Automatic annotation (TrEMBL):
<feature type="transmembrane region" description="Helical">
    <location>
        <begin position="254"/>
        <end position="272"/>
    </location>
</feature>
<feature type="transmembrane region" description="Helical">
    <location>
        <begin position="12"/>
        <end position="33"/>
    </location>
</feature>
<keyword id="KW-0482">Metalloprotease</keyword>
<feature type="transmembrane region" description="Helical">
    <location>
        <begin position="155"/>
        <end position="177"/>
    </location>
</feature>
<feature type="transmembrane region" description="Helical">
    <location>
        <begin position="45"/>
        <end position="67"/>
    </location>
</feature>
<feature type="transmembrane region" description="Helical">
    <location>
        <begin position="124"/>
        <end position="143"/>
    </location>
</feature>
<feature type="transmembrane region" description="Helical">
    <location>
        <begin position="197"/>
        <end position="214"/>
    </location>
</feature>
<dbReference type="InterPro" id="IPR042150">
    <property type="entry name" value="MmRce1-like"/>
</dbReference>
<keyword id="KW-1133">Transmembrane helix</keyword>
<dbReference type="GO" id="GO:0004175">
    <property type="term" value="F:endopeptidase activity"/>
</dbReference>
<dbReference type="GO" id="GO:0080120">
    <property type="term" value="P:CAAX-box protein maturation"/>
</dbReference>
<feature type="domain" description="CAAX prenyl protease 2/Lysostaphin resistance protein A-like">
    <location>
        <begin position="129"/>
        <end position="232"/>
    </location>
</feature>
<keyword id="KW-0812">Transmembrane</keyword>
<keyword id="KW-0472">Membrane</keyword>
<feature type="transmembrane region" description="Helical">
    <location>
        <begin position="88"/>
        <end position="112"/>
    </location>
</feature>
<protein>
    <submittedName>
        <fullName>CPBP family intramembrane metalloprotease</fullName>
    </submittedName>
</protein>
<dbReference type="InterPro" id="IPR003675">
    <property type="entry name" value="Rce1/LyrA-like_dom"/>
</dbReference>
Length: 293
């Protein structure tokens, strides 16, 4: 079994992640039905089930690493999780690029339309820091040991940076499908257009995150930082400042944001490709052994 898992690490990861996530979010749907997320956050059991599903990728990565590589593998994974020493510019990109793109999308929309309304600082805005901390726990910390800590390096052993970004983005997108039955989380299955945009978004974000992690020497913290800021920049920081804005106006902002991501993606992939080649052996082959999917 260990040899088979080592031979097909990506398939093993997908299967185990689906099992863990499916158990948590499947029970959530069974017990609470299609209750919206706002109604579930006051239910302790619902919170446990939500986080159980969310930690599926990271738990799968830890279990598979421990089973196939033992303590040494877990130690190496832990070192990458705690690695904070990488170029300051990479930290700046991880934390600042999502916010910059969100601000640019909002400003571009404001130039051509007034549907967002005036900026109004909400009275509850002082409570934003603890709310943003919850957002850090809700996705990035639960997921990134799996997506960027385990899956990404295994895919890079076999595929190009573009192929890796597309595969991770696709898996990451459709991994969220069980949450589509919980209003207020991901797009509902009845909105294929919204899911299509969501799919494109996860691929573009995965490409940029790949470049950031590669330039951060594989640091999972860099991925967590970018994932966190990507989650909160528009909906958590900017959207509350425009209380008069309609849903359609914010949909337009999100579309502009998607275009900005698309502009950044080829640059990110080129930078990642160049860095990987620079770190390769003199004959041009990666130091890591290529593995089967």
């Amino acid at each position: 079994m260990k040899e088979r898992i080592s031979h097909y690490p990506v398939l093993a990861f997908i299967a185990l992640t689906a099992a863990i996530t499916g158990s948590g979010w499947g029970l959530l749907l069974t017990i609470y039905g299609r209750a919206p997320i706002d109604a579930l956050i006051s239910q302790p059991l619902a919170i446990v089930l939500i986080y159980t599903g969310a930690t599926g990728p990271s738990l799968a990565a830890i279990i598979l690493t421990g089973y196939t590589k033992g303590k040494d593998g877990l130690r190496e994974l832990g070192h990458r999780f705690t690695r904070i020493k990488f170029p300051a510019g990479t930290w700046l990109l991880a934390m600042g690029l999502p916010l910059l793109l969100a601000v640019m999308a909002t400003l571009l929309h404001s130039i051509f339309s007034e549907t967002l309304g005036d900026i109004v600082l909400p009275a509850w805005y002082r409570l934003l820091p603890p709310a943003l901390f919850v957002a850090l726990l809700a996705g990035p910390l639960c997921e990134e040991v799996g997506w960027r800590g385990y899956l990404q390096p295994h895919l890079l052993n076999r595929f190009s940076v573009t192929g890796t970004a597309v595969i991770i983005g696709t898996i990451w997108c459709f991994w969220h499908i069980p949450l589509s039955f919980t209003p207020g989380t991901t797009p509902p299955l009845s909105s294929p257009g919204a899911w299509g945009l969501y799919w494109v978004d996860t691929i573009l974000v995965s490409a940029i995150m790949l470049a950031i992690v590669v330039h951060a020497s594989g640091s999972i913290l860099a991925a967590i930082a970018f994932h966190w800021m990507s989650n909160i920049a528009l909906s958590g920081i900017l959207q509350p400042l425009y209380p008069a804005a309609t849903d359609s106006a914010w949909s337009e902002v999100q579309q502009i944001h998607l275009v900005l991501l698309a502009i950044c993606t080829p640059i990110a992939l080129w930078l990642a490709h160049r860095r990987i080649n620079r770190d390769a052996e003199p004959n041009g082959h990666l130091q890591q052994r290529r593995q089967h999917l």
